[in-house]
Input
Amino acid sequence: MNIFENILSSATIFKNRDVLRHSYTPEKLPHREEQINQLALLLSPMLRGGTPSNIFIYGKTGTGKTATVLFVGRQLEEASKKARLNVAVHYINCEIVDTAYRVLASLARKFGSNVPMTGWPTDQVYDEVKKVLERRGARVLVILDEIDKLVKKAEEALYGLTRINSELEKSSICLIGISNNLKFKEYLDARVLSSLSEEEIVFPPYNAEQLEDILQQRAKLAFEDGVLEEGVIQLCAAIAAQEHGDARKALDLLRVSAEIAERERDSMVRVEHVKKAVRKIETDYMIETVRTLPVHSKILLYSMSLISENTPKFTTGEVYCVYKKLCNKVGINPLTQRRISDLISELDMLGVLNSVVISKGRYGRTREMKLEADRKTLRKALEEDYRLQNLRKFEGELKKFANLNLFQF
DNA sequence: CCTCCACCGGAAAGCCGGGTCA
DNA sequence: TGACCCGGCTTTCCGGTGGAGG
Output
């Protein structure tokens, strides 16, 4: 028997897995009617040959900003096609397209202009965009998703785009900026800000009930009938609502739960799978944060993992002592205790450990901490770093040292 | 009630890599 | 091209402190 046939014949939980991915834009967006109407109203001048105000949209991750804008954009295109108008919608994700050149080039290319990937001066691309738009007489809705990413590297591109209309005659551009970072407005140049946020739409987080509706709707498309145990959706919704009302998280949770069920060859997705999924997502997140930490933080965590084999709680001085020893072993200059103190605070913020400043009277004032992450998982994630791999060789010696260090008082 | 530990955490300066501008 | 600047990381310096023990 073909190995794939074997796999395919066994698991039939998913009907369509892609429905649960972030990239999927559903036909209906529950609990976003208000925002959809507002947006449609603001954009309607495009269908009457006018130019709408620029729009600025903000809301936390997973509040349906991108999905809503894409949805309305699609409807706009359809409506304009029916009315035989020359309206186009151009979506740009600024995290990927993150320089002035690339933004302008992608816009020019959308209208069939041959702008090379690199090479032209940015001004020339800007002119090219104007030329192409004028030739077509097009009204364009440009969606700049994650616009905060663009500000740092290409504020002048934004400035240019906000002013481009005054240099166009037959065509026009309407901008929609999407951001989940409210603070970014403070960094924005005042001229750009006032032009960009002529209109603003806020996307509030979803509550548990709303998330439940969203999940219900997607589940119908994603799963075969009757594979979800009673309460699975409610649990996913409740957990996601507790955090930030993040629909993305809720969908992830549901998808991972189902994947776990599938892997266990269970015919149903059960509440226990959701609980496992929560843990899996948590550890995955932890591993990912640890992986991307700078070396010194990694060595620091390694010291902590050694110490916590003997005692769960320990102080800055103890960790620093072991940390210095480890640095010697791997041939890296240790940082000062002052700096380590800051690194510990950072790790605390990330949730890898938990620390409190306590006073031990005569024996000083210090921070007492304990690891939050599972020690074994943490260790595995740390040892992925080639610079720390030698440390396993000294494990016995180091453990003894860590132990000794604790009893020096 | 005072002392004094062992560190906290603010301020400021130094270092470094990358980017900018003439 | 080199002078210059910027921001992030790190060190240096140092005043501050809660509470056990005297």
User: Anything to note?
Assistant: Chain A has three domains: 32-202, 206-289, 293-408. Strands of chain A lie at 55-59, 87-93, 139-145, 172-179, 199-203, 314-315, 353-359, 365-371.
